[in-house]
Amino acid sequence: MKSVLLIGLGRFGRHMAAKLQELHHEVLAVDKNEERVNEALDLVTHAQIGDSTSEAFIASLGVRNFDLCVVAIGDDFQSSLETTALLKEQGARFVLSRAARDVHAKFLLRNGADDVVYPERETASWAAVRYSSDHIFDYIQLTPDHAIYETAVPPAWVGKTIGQLGVRQRHNINILAAKRGEELIPIPGGDYCFREGETMLVLGADRDVQKFLHF
């Protein structure tokens, strides 16, 4: 379990708070808007109303005691930048800041952020890949050129084993798992036989997976 300071309770901040709680981390959430704080009380361990651009307020939070500080402010870049800088000045171990554009990320990284996240860009990229193909159900980009895809098993593969199909040799992709409803079969061997209605998780270069998906 980690201790997390989460500043900003807009949509991104609330979603992150909910996921952190699900992962059993201890979260102190902060926002200057009282209504947002009240709405998040059931999502976090503690919540506080305060202005994160105030040096005195940031100092009062004891930021050195948190494993992770997240600046989730999305509607006011100046406040996000000031908050990021103040957190680092007060000795924050790791600061993750939300960015909307590359220029924002550049300034945030120069002023104390250890890393940045682009929620809108990442969601847009995921949606573009997910909904531009009839066979993709999920997608995780690992590098600019490689990703993991959850995709349908081609009808021609049903009743055949991975070894018979020569998947890696013919398509240059690796099958990480097969899925039957909620059941996950990790790292299936060469004798694994595909069944109708299954999906699979494949890892490969984007160009190879996209070529394979035209079945």
Automatic annotation (TrEMBL):
<dbReference type="InterPro" id="IPR006037">
    <property type="entry name" value="RCK_C"/>
</dbReference>
<dbReference type="Pfam" id="PF02080">
    <property type="entry name" value="TrkA_C"/>
</dbReference>
<feature type="domain" description="RCK N-terminal">
    <location>
        <begin position="1"/>
        <end position="118"/>
    </location>
</feature>
<dbReference type="GO" id="GO:0008324">
    <property type="term" value="F:monoatomic cation transmembrane transporter activity"/>
</dbReference>
<feature type="domain" description="RCK C-terminal">
    <location>
        <begin position="134"/>
        <end position="215"/>
    </location>
</feature>
<dbReference type="InterPro" id="IPR036721">
    <property type="entry name" value="RCK_C_sf"/>
</dbReference>
<dbReference type="InterPro" id="IPR003148">
    <property type="entry name" value="RCK_N"/>
</dbReference>
<dbReference type="InterPro" id="IPR036291">
    <property type="entry name" value="NAD(P)-bd_dom_sf"/>
</dbReference>
<dbReference type="Pfam" id="PF02254">
    <property type="entry name" value="TrkA_N"/>
</dbReference>
<dbReference type="InterPro" id="IPR050721">
    <property type="entry name" value="Trk_Ktr_HKT_K-transport"/>
</dbReference>
<protein>
    <submittedName>
        <fullName>TrkA family potassium uptake protein</fullName>
    </submittedName>
</protein>
<dbReference type="GO" id="GO:0006813">
    <property type="term" value="P:potassium ion transport"/>
</dbReference>
